[in-house]
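pls read this stuff:
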Amino acid sequence: MLKKATRSWRFWVFIAFCALAAVLGGIATEDVENANIWILAAFICFILVFGTMAYGRVIATLDGRAERIKRELDEAQKLREDAQALLDDYKSKRAQAEADALRMVEHAQVEAERRAQAGKRELEAAMERRAQMALQRISLAEADALREVRAAAGSLAVRAAGRLIAESMGADRAEALVQESIRQVQQKLH
């Protein structure tokens, strides 16, 4: 600081003025009032020179501090802008995620409806197949029953006819019919 101060013209003016004040103060030592004026003048010069030097340092310090505060404010502003951009990005991602979730829910509802319709159609088809199978079983059961009735009716008719023939025909006539039938079978075989 002393090297910087010795380069200033104010410093040399101050030194010259202080030397002049000291010389004049030494000459005028008899006059106390005059010496007080010179001491006051020297003090004012001292305050002016060192005040301007101190003012420069204070201004430089304040300027440095203002610059540091400005840098910190700029950095804070940049950080705020980054945070705002990040917040906006997260908000857009959240909105996109909500839109995706809504689309997924809608798709799930459509898929559930489609599967419900498919299940309903499959159930109706299964019920139709079971009804067809039941109708087939019924018709088979009817055919079996009809066959059994016909067989039973046929055997009943044969027995009834055999009984009627046996009752209405004599033993001679039955023997003749049996012999005639045997002869016809032999002829057909040879």
Summary: Residues 19 and 42 are 9 Å apart (CA to CA). Residues 7-124 form one domain. The chain is about 95% helix and 0% strand. Residues 32-168 form the longest helix (137 residues).
